[in-house]
Amino acid sequence: MSPIKIGVLISGGGTNLQCLIDGIKSGYINGEIKLVMSNKKDAYGLKRAEKEGIEALYIDRKSFGSEEEYNRKVIETFKNREIDLVVLAGYLRVLSKEFVREYSGRIINIHPSLIPSFCGKGYYGEKVHKEVLRYGVKVTGATVHFVDEGTDTGPIILQRTVEVKEQDTVETLKDRVLEVEHEILVEAVKLFCDRKIKLEDRKVTILR
Q1: 111 annotated active-site
Q2: What residues does the record give for site: Raises pKa of active site His (predicted)?
Q3: Which domain holds residue 150?
Q4: Would you say 71 is a known binding-site residue?
Q5: 123 in a structural domain
Q6: HEC profile of the chain
Q7: Catalytic pick from 111, 129, 145, 182?
Q8: CATH number, residue 33
Q9: pTM of the entire predicted model
Q10: Can you give the pLDDT at residue 158?
Q11: Taking 80 as the threshold, does the pLDDT of residue 1 lie above it?
């Protein structure tokens, strides 16, 4: 099987991106990252990509006259590179409906909670962990899911739990959840690249 061509969208440091890069370099993931794109010019993840010889792009929304023009440029950028799989690895911008439709069933996202808890509009980054601690739940975790036109509403691929400890702070909880994020994102991308994910309506089946 030829390697799956992957495009990664980021907004920050790119630790999840680095885990994907490492997974590919080790031969664990049968894929190739062809493009890393960010909506933030100073995102460190772009430097991670450049270091590995991966095309790294910053596309400035302000340089386009309208949201529609910007969205067309993003779609065109991915299509020109024949991207098979789009991975949102800490991307803090809502994808356009046009983009989601173009890559339906081929966009996955990592979220730092057990969806459908602590997700949706306004739930990202440390805000998720603050709410987890405020609410007093005993278990949290991370979720990898397909992206649809809603916010964190797409079909779930993988989830893994993390115990919430009494002494936890936002920082300590975030660090433990991030470890799990790294693990299940790499696993989900591997499964996709091995053609072992079957999607029917909302149900995801892992083929063995």
Answers
A1: yes
A2: 152
A3: 4-110+144-156+177-199
A4: no
A5: no
A6: CCCEEEEEEECCCCHHHHHHHHHHHCCCCCEEEEEEEECCCCCHHHHHHHHCCCEEEECCHHHCCCHHHHHHHHHHHHHHCCCCEEEECCCCCCCCHHHHHHCCCCEEEEECCCCCCCCCCCCCCHHHHHHHHHHCCCEEEEEEEECCCCCCCCCEEEEEEEECCCCCCHHHHHHHHHHHHHHHHHHHHHHHHCCCEEEECCEEEECC
A7: 111
A8: 3.40.50.170
A9: 0.94
A10: 98
A11: no
